[in-house]
Amino acid sequence: MDFNNSDGKAGKAELSTDNVQLVSLLSAGTIFDYWIASNKTSTAHEYFIAKTVSDKAQMKDGYNFIFMASKIRQLNDHPNIVIFLGCAIDKEPYYIYQELLEYGTLREILMRIGNSQHHLQNPSNGKEELTNAACLVGFARDVASGLEFLHINKLCHPGLMTRKILYDSNNKCKLFDFWPNEISSGRLKKILSRKDPPIGWFPPETIFMNQYDEVSDIWSYGVILWEIFSF
């Protein structure tokens, strides 16, 4: 992608919204909308994700979005984290640009494994490459590696579950939708205020005292391990 550092190091570029074409709305929420987008200045016809603040969001959500973008843009690339390509936070609407992964979520992959006999096919070429046992251990390792990277960089992942983990063409799991520790409590309140919050993935202190930190991620990871090895 033209606006990404080729060496994968921190300090990703800011891309003007004038150079981004929003192609189709992928999902709309109360805080964020996700679009499939393309770079007008590129001739490669590559697509990526454009994450923006929803019209339904509050003013504070916009401030948090800017803080989150400024934090994430300093991260180095990691094999188990969705690649951050750039951002546009100089004026509204604000955007964060991320790689587009089209191979489904970890939950979808686990369901596919549960319906197969021996092997999981590589989604990019359809070839059988790994045994189910090797896949499951690899998934667990990928999520743990991604969480370790987030925690080192003072980020956490409220709402972490298998359907919030993406899968790429190299049979790798990638985390997305993580938050800086400083504003994770705001994200937590939004999640718990839903009609059917995913309390099965939250530790007791989160459910009863609205507390969340990196240790809470480890509880969620334990639930994910149960999900992975139950298939």
UniProtKB/TrEMBL annotation:
Ranges in a coiled coil: none
Any one GO MF annotation of this record: transmembrane receptor protein tyrosine kinase activity
Top-rank taxon: Eukaryota
Bilayer-spanning residue ranges: none
GO CC, any one term: receptor complex
A Pfam family that the UniProt record links to this protein: PK_Tyr_Ser-Thr
UniProt xrefs under SUPFAM superfamilies: Protein kinase-like (PK-like) (SSF56112)
Domain Protein kinase: 20-231
One GO biological process term: cell surface receptor protein tyrosine kinase signaling pathway
Name of the protein: Protein kinase domain-containing protein
